[in-house]
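Q: How do we represent a protein-ligand complex in a form that can be generated token by token?
A: Start from the inputs.
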Amino acid sequence: MLEIDDIEVYYGDAQAIFGLSLEVGEGEVVTLVGSNGAGKTTTLRAVAGIRAPRSGDIRFEGESLLKIPPHERAERGIALVPEGRELWPQMSVRENLELGAFGKRARGRVEESLGQVMSLFPRLEERADQLAGSLSGGEQQMCAIGRALMSKPRLLMFDEPSLGLAPILVRQVFETVRHLHADEGLTILLVEQNLRKALESADRGYVIETGRIKTEGPSKELLQDETIRSAYLGI
Amino acid sequence: MEEVTRLTVSSLLLAGLYAVMAYGLGLIYGVLRVVNLAHAGMIMGGAYLTWVLHGRLGIDPYLSIPVVMGAFFVFGVVLYKGLVRFLPRGAAGGGQSLLLLFGVWLLMRNAAYLLFSGNDQAVRTGYSTQGLRLLGVSVSVNRVAVFVIALIALGALHFFLTRTYLGKAIRAVAQNPDSCLLVGIDVERVYALTFGIGSALGGLAGLLLSTIFAFNPSSGAVELLKSFVVVVLGGLGSVVGIALGALVLAFAESFSILVLPSFLTAAVGFVLLVIVLVLRPGGLFGQRVLG
Ligand SMILES: Nc1ncnc2c1ncn2[C@@H]1O[C@H](COP(=O)(O)OP(=O)(O)OP(=O)(O)O)[C@@H](O)[C@H]1O
Ligand SMILES: [Mg+2]
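Then emit the structure tokens for the protein with adenosine-5'-triphosphate bound:
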């Protein structure tokens, strides 16, 4: 469904991604893991169109995304739950969700989607008229996931959804990812630093280090890999 | 006592005009982080366009509102696409955009000198001198009309920003543009639209102004500064904040004549501005961005 083919991404003169390739098949949960500054966010931003790669290609359902402006990528079925939530803090939870359905395809079904998101996260229904900026961290994460779902995506990308959450909420986030995949049939690209949890909920994984893919393979194998265990799991 | 009522009524009526001109400036700053100095030119240009439409074609100034707003909307969009789009924004590039938009204002002003000379002009209609009684005070019909139109314009804008998808998109872009791209909002289009709306409000302010005050090519400068004062007083938060800011300025100016010589009235706003900037750098009525 998604193919990232040998991309290089720069911030000004500083290169952040060095020839990275990655693939997500339809119906898969794929995780991209790595430590701080490895280039995970940059990779997702390239797919979302916020930061264009200088070379290489990104294809979605066989078609190159590079010529498609970022705001049209949601229309194609790509959504990102960004690192740090990135809500519109001075707008209500309801407005944040409604705007998630800004695209043509999604807007016609905004009421139906709102109902689905509210039943997935009943807490958001209670807080619907509250400003998004006044929500707790966990509620903001729900709102950010809800906003992404409102666009009716087929590929949903998460950027460290568990960051800064209490353990019980972390569990809930991973449970949501599992539910969206198993029950809603979404294809998922999950970026995490929580390597163990991410690999446990994914089919396959990629380990990124300083802008390059270091290792890749089925999650089970990666979890058994000695170098990964010592480098990332502290075993 | 009657003097106080008279001043109260006239401040209230004036506040409507202040709010319209300030909202144009505030909206553009809130969304694009650009101080649009050309706003002064929009106000001046709106007054001249109204004057031409009335003088040459005999169109009543209030009936030419759609034409004037439409013309300045288009002008704003073109100015955005042709110039503002390429300017650095925010704190880092503030100086450059300030200078360039100042240049646009100078061009507009000089064009007006060439076209219309530097003489004072006014739009005089059959009802210009008529008055009506409000709270026992006699006021001109034009001032009341200007106030009512200002209220309608601000109400419509408020409705647009809070109830429509496009209006909400404008507020969202002000708060976090990257997130807007993620949900499919064409941020560049929103910037152009916002610049157009802000310019249309400048044109409208000029139209309203032309029905009650004389103007010349240098008009707009004082109005720009007053708009700035209102935005600082009221914050970028909402129509309500801007309206409150406009009321404070209008009342302060009007009532100052009880204690100050009239040639100092124009300075009142700036004294107010300094006081507020020192005491409450975020503005009197909060600093929420288009909440
Ligand atoms: N806006 C930016 N300007 C300049 N350099 C940046 C910018 N954003 C990221 N970088 C650099 O690009 C590299 C990759 O950063 P990125 O944010 O993609 O890492 P990450 O894997 O998401 O890290 P984290 O786990 O901390 O979120 C880093 O070296 C970082 O310093
Ligand atoms: Mg990151």
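Strands of chain A lie at 2-11, 14-24, 29-33, 55-60, 63-64, 78-81, 155-159, 187-192, 204-209, 212-218. The radius of gyration of chain A is 17 Å.
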